[in-house]
Amino acid sequence: MKSEPINRTSMWKFKLSAATMTLIPAAVGINYVAKALAEGLKLPVWLGSLGTFLASMLAGPVAGAVSGFINNVIYGLTLSPISTVYAITSIGIGIAVGILHAKGWFSSIRKVFISAIIIAIVSAVISTPLNVIFWGGQTGIAWGDSLFALMVANHAPVWLASFTDEFVLDILDKVCVAYLAFFIYRQLPQRMVRFFRDDK
Amino acid sequence: MTDQNMLTGETVGKSKWYNAIDPVTKLLFILDMALLSFASTNLVIEGGLIAMALVLLLFSKVSSTTFKALGFSLFLIFTMLVIQGLFYSQNQTVLFSIIGIHFYKEGLLYATILGSRVLVIILASGFFMVTTTISENAKYLEQSGLSYKTVYVLMSVCYILPEIMANMRKIQQAQRVRGTNPQKTFIQKLRSVLPVLIPLVIKTLDQSMTRSISLQLRGFDNPKRKALKGNNHYRLASVGHYGLTIIAVILIGWKLWTKINGLF
Fold first, then answer.
1. What's A108's domain CATH number?
2. By the CB < 8 Å criterion, does B8 face chain A?
3. Is residue A122 included in any domain, yes or no?
4. Using the beta-carbon criterion (under 8 Å), do A135 and B189 form an inter-chain contact?
5. Which regions span the lipid bilayer (chain B) (predicted)?
6. ipTM score here?
7. Which of A64, A140, B96, B230 would suit a FRET pair with A118, their CA atoms being 20 to 30 Å apart?
8. Is B101 at the interface with chain A, CB within 8 A?
9. CB burial string B213-251: b at 16+ within 10 A, e below
């Protein structure tokens, strides 16, 4: 099961063209509904970065990063204020996905798994300081926080306990989102892929 | 104000006192409140900031959105109190015991300060959330010099979201009729997401393409395009901006100074 990696002149090339301007809000919307679907089905994952993944795969790392950033800003200004600070994590995810996709790391099932691990590490590394500053290291998810409490009780450093708490949650979420994005991207019509890829 | 009209940007009553405050002043106010809260480790000051934000919120509007944000955070603050009260690395003094489990003063104090900071941010942001629509914010930012393209991106999210939600409901209904139901195991549940997500994503991106072509045809990229000039009803906007920015700079400088002094 293979798909062609994107051959782009420069993955960093970014222009706020009409196509990108309409792709970013769509990505934010996809993030929102994917999260709502996961909550509705009571899945133990968020899926709230699916749109960011797709935007990065379609239009490159900068478009993905902008989508992630705007997603958290809008979410923070309308529903959950603390989400705004996690915009930095979303930027990191968008850039990581964009680079990995451009380098062909979303071309096979095996590579997608490795990409998901890398993205989970990026996400956990950026989120850990924010978790420590705002929540004393916790994430707010019961089983991750149980692990955090267990590690802290055994005198593990807070930073390590917090990173582990975040990483165990991120790894499951990012593996699911990466495979969803991979399967969805393969289903997209080529004219659509070319439309967003070439409009720079 | 409901979640829906906050997103779509229906106008709020213009006669209220908070409508005279511009969105940037409100955002700077959140920043200053957060900085003040982070600069302090005194519970009395934290309590004062919470009271101030709460009073401001009560005198403006009480919304279910703020309660939702508070609900999740209060649960997290409670778990933080338990975990830090039991296991915080600097715990020394037992404050109380429940069925033989000791809760320590240092951990509880640390968790209370962290929790207070979160409450200050949520309540101060709550004031912005209930008194400003995204469209009002975006229009003001465009008038203040933000690129119209960025404003379009921010604004269109508000209009696209209800459209995507409606599409999702239609697709879910169609899949249910075809017999695609949520399953029991995690993998089955995840697989059941695909028949909804794939058509939804394709439809959303297809609508984006159509929107993009319409924008190009209407000359949205025209370099001669000018920002809409609206009548501002805001009072003392520049005084608010300068005053709150100076306070923010002083607070950041003071915090950095105390950190540097602490190193030597």
1. 1.10.1760.20
2. no
3. yes
4. no
5. 35-59, 65-87, 108-130, 234-257
6. 0.87
7. A140
8. no
9. eebeeeeeeeeeeeeeeeeeeeeebeebbeebeebbeeb
